[in-house]
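Just scan my protein:

——
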Amino acid sequence: MDYNQILKDIYEEIRPYAKRGKQADYIPALAQVNPDKFGICLRTINGETYTLGDSDERFSIQSITKVLSLAMCLHVEGNEIWKRMGKEPSGAAFNSIIQLELEHGIPRNPFINAGAIVQADILMSHLDNPKEQYISFIRDIAKCDTIDYNMEVARSERSKGFLNAAIVNMMKYYGNIDNDIEDVLEFYFMMCSVEMNCKELSQAFLAFSNHKSPFEFNGVSLTSSQVKRINAIMQTCGFYDEAGEFAYYVGLPGKSGVGGGIAAIHPLQYSVAVWSPRLNEKGNSVMGLKALELLTTKTAESIF
C-alpha cells in the first residue's frame, strides 16, 4: 500500500473543506490556535511511518485523553469500573447534564465528560501521585519524554468550566464521586490539556491497534481482551452523538477531541492521528473526519 501517495491524494481532496467550521472558541486558550493547521501521521504495526503537513506540531488532545485514562482505570480497577459508568453510546451532547440526571449520576460511557470525570476520580483514589503517574504513562506509551500538560489550557478550561462543575456536583450528589470535587475537576482539566503531535499520538494508539502485543507501559498493563474492549467502546462511543456517522463513513475505532485531533486504529494494521482545529457542530474536526473517510475509501479497508 502506497500510503505516502494516499496521504497526498487525501490532502488534495480535502482542501475544499479547509475553511469549514471553527476552532473550539468556548475554551479561551483553544480560540487562539491557528485554525488552518493540518497534520496527519499513520504508523503501521510493522514499524513504517507516513506523515504529511503539521504532524510535528503539538496540540491539546482534549477528549482523546479519555482513551488513555480508560486504559489506566482498567488497570487499577478492572471490570469494577463498570459499576460507575456504562458502555452505551450517549446519543446526546458530550457535556449533557440532562441525561446524567435521568440516569442518577451514572455516565452513559467513559468518553462523555461525565465518564471521564469519574475516571479522574478513580485514578485519584488509586494513585499516589495521579498527575505525575498519568503523564509518565503517556510519555511511555508515546515514546516521548517531553510530552506534558499545558497549564494555560487547563486554567482556561477551568475558568469557563461551569457545566463540568455542575456535572461533577451532580455525580457527587448521587454518590459517584469519592474525592473532593475541586481536586477532581483540576485533574480532569489537566488530563485534557495534555499536548501531543500527530506522530506522538499515532505512536500511543499503536498499542491499541496491535492487541496481540503485550500492553505494558509505565506499570500499566492490560490483557489483549481489555484492549479489544477499549477499541469496541471507541467504535461505538468515540465521537459522541456522531459515532454512528463515523462508523458509517470511516469504519474504524477512534476518538476525537475538541482540540481538532482524531486518533483511530485499524486493528493489527495501523494507527493514524490527524489534526485540524476547525470543528463541525458536533465538536469533531471537519477535515479530520473527511481525511479518515478518504483513507478507508482509498485503501478499501476498514474493520467491516
